[in-house]
Write a structure and sequence with these properties.
By secondary structure, the chain is of the alpha/beta class. It has a single domain, classed as Metal-dependent hydrolases (TIM Barrel). Strand 2, helix 2 and strand 3 form a beta-alpha-beta unit. Helix 5 packs parallel to helix 6. It is globular and about 55 Å long. The two termini are 17 Å apart. 41% of the residues are buried. It catalyses: L-histidinol phosphate + H2O = L-histidinol + phosphate. It comes from Corynascus novoguineensis. Belongs to the PHP hydrolase family. HisK subfamily.
């Protein structure tokens, strides 16, 4: 019963990922996935939101292509969903962006498409600056938050909270992505930050525990509406010691009774199921014994289907994996 709830293709994320979507699905079948969630990035609406790789040959042309590309993605995803139904469950979703609050309206609109099963609520920017692109851009995000990493982390979790309140995603993506290019990605968020870090523009409660209080607030909110955190193994292939979310956050989530889903956040065939064994070991070390995904089932007494939550024991998850 192995699965991923987070994946991308080069076909619909050109320059950001590799490979055709159908080839990725065929590889997912080969490695033993029983479910794959397709979550290409949602369209963005402003030239300032484009990444450097998207500026050529023309930023305007790139921006204009994003909406039609999303439409093409949904059509291809539906085709593949039908074609491979006997071999794998294909869930159709998207990964949201929250570069500014105005994106909430677009996220909610995209989510109403009948083809969409769910979406991932993610934060890739703080103060409008990408925090996971590269180290220099991360440094620019730090400066935008007043010059301290503590202020950046506080602002990141504040923007995440605004996103959570506005769109309530079923899956919260890479909860602590802000750690990726940190000068100390393993630093404890729970035990406080050195006072020398400075407060910056993080908002109220700028003591050493300001970041952790925001983390707990956000977790409580997700738990309150029944959302899931993904255990995202991409952190491991990017050099971090632990998957997203890091242990102290994951422990707090478990303490709250929160549910985990699982994702490789693959950007092509080579990254499908990357570090899955390590990710499962990590979860089991936290006492987690089951993961959650979705399944579409026929309603009793009719032909209509409904999307239902499905528990997958980690033991069963491991058995279906066919990793070399």
């Amino acid at each position: 019963m192995a699965f991923t709830m987070h994946s991308h293709s080069g076909q619909f994320c050109p320059g950001h990922a590799k490979d055709q979507l159908e080839d990725i699905i065929l590889h997912a079948i080969k490695v033993g996935y029983k479910t794959i969630g397709l979550t290409e990035h949602m369209p963005r609406t402003e030239l300032s939101d484009l990444y450097p790789e998207e500026l050529l040959p023309s930023p305007e042309a790139t921006l204009a292509s994003l909406g039609p590309r999303h439409t093409a993605y949904l059509a291809e995803a539906r085709r593949l969903q039908d074609k491979y139904a006997p071999q794998i469950r294909i869930l159709i979703g998207f990964e949201s962006e929250w570069i500014r609050p105005a994106y909430g309206t677009l996220i909610r609109s995209l989510a109403t498409d009948p083809a969409i099963d769910y979406f991932i609520g993610s934060i890739h920017h703080t103060k409008g600056v990408p925090i996971d692109f590269d180290a220099p851009t991360y440094a620019a995000a730090v400066r935008a938050c007043g010059g301290s990493e503590r202020a950046l982390f506080a602002a990141y979790f504040d923007e995440q909270f605004a996103m959570l309140e506005a769109v309530r995603p079923r899956v919260v993506g890479h909860f602590d992505l802000v750690r990726l290019f940190s000068t100390d990605p393993g630093r404890s968020l729970k035990e406080g930050w050195d006072e020398e870090e400075g407060g910056g523009e993080g908002g109220e409660g700028e003591g050493p525990t300001a970041v952790w209080s925001r983390v707990v607030r956000n977790l409580k909110f997700v738990r309150g509406y029944g959302g899931w955190l993904e255990c995202n193994t991409s952190a491991l292939r990017k050099g971090l010691a632990e998957a997203y979310p890091k242990r102290e956050i994951a422990e707090e989530w478990v303490r709250m009774g929160g549910r985990f889903t699982f994702g490789d956040d693959s950007h092509g065939i080579a990254q499908v199921a990357t570090n899955y064994a390590r990710g499962l070991d990590y979860l089991e070390s936290l006492g987690v014994r089951e993961l959650w995904t979705l399944e579409r089932r026929v309603r009793a007494g009719g032909e209509e289907t409904e999307l239902v939550e499905m528990s997958v024991p980690i033991k069963e998850f491991r058995v279906s994996l066919k990793l070399e």
